[in-house]
Amino acid sequence: MEDVVKIENVSITYAGDKEPVPAVRDIDLAVGRERILGLVGESGSGKSSLVGAMLSLLPASSRIDGHILIDGADLYGLTPKERRAMRGRTVATVSQDPFTALNPVVSIGRQLLEFQHRLAGSRREKLENAKKMLEQVGIADADVRMKQYPHQLSGGLRQRVAIAAALLVRPRLLIADEPTTALDATTEAEVIEIIRDMRGAVDGSIVFVTHDMGVVSRLCDDVAVMYAGELVESGPVAEVMERPRHPYTAALLACDPSRIKTTSGDLPTIPGTVPKPTDLPPGCIFSPRCPKVFARCRREAPALTAAGPSRVACHLIEEADAAA
Ligand SMILES: Nc1ncnc2c1ncn2[C@@H]1O[C@H](COP(=O)(O)OP(=O)(O)OP(=O)(O)O)[C@@H](O)[C@H]1O
Ligand SMILES: [Mg+2]
């Protein structure tokens, strides 16, 4: 399978106020062509940092080690100018808050025209493309909407416009960082549906960041589970959902509201909190919260190991292999 994105030994360190913050550590991950990868993990696990690095959107004071290859081009081997040129062309994004992507004082039509400024074609063709794309993301009265301003649109419509804007450039990689958290459940379901329908408009792959395992199972082909800045498990969605091998993945699934049938309305949560990157436990980073912890876990960090079609960083995998 051809990989559109290859992340090799990537670590991200923020300058921090008092000390360096090693927010992402040694990630190895690939996203195949025409695949949708779900990136999941609790708050603070480094999801936005990792996609920020793919988008060249991290603060200048942060340090990125390792390699991020997009279509074989090493992003951080390029000049800053070349890298910026990839954003909005090769790599496009839909963010949590579509207001950040849209300019409040410029009409939708004009903005959609501007998003295409690096593409060939006449103004008329570009306006026509914008209108078609709005229709494709389910906006019926595209002509009217093109003349309106972002504040005249509902949150769900704005997010559709943001998706249309990102897709107009036919990116090789579309990154959506929690694009539905600001929306109500019905609109969220619609936006997910649109992304699923529109996957053909991305001439490459999609990375979808979410807290929600239910969204991953509805939308994604592959999943990567991050915890406190590290990759703990990755693999095809069906496999990881059916056979979560890392206790953290199992715990996330156990907390997924769509899989739980409680009558009390109380949702289970994972006891404890994600450690800060500046205060990591020795051994396995999940060991202080892990229900299956044993002595080795507190001493030694597990390496990411192949387990069936998945990759898992847990000593239980090696112990099981040794016992077999
Ligand atoms: N500019 C920064 N300077 C210092 N630390 C930062 C900076 N940005 C993020 N961090 C830290 O890096 C870690 C990872 O943050 P990040 O935002 O990538 O996580 P996330 O998984 O996207 O979380 P969320 O689900 O809340 O969006 C956190 O501990 C965060 O406090
Ligand atoms: Mg985030």
TrEMBL record:
Keyword S-adenosyl-L-methionine: no
SUPFAM superfamilies: P-loop containing nucleoside triphosphate hydrolases (SSF52540)
Transmembrane segments: none
Subcellular location: Cell inner membrane
Family matches, as Pfam families: ABC_tran (PF00005), oligo_HPY (PF08352)
Keyword set, alphabetical order: ATP-binding, Cell membrane, Membrane, Nucleotide-binding, Transport
Name the record gives this protein: ABC transporter ATP-binding protein
Residue intervals of the ABC transporter domain: 5-253
Nucleotide-binding listed as a keyword: yes
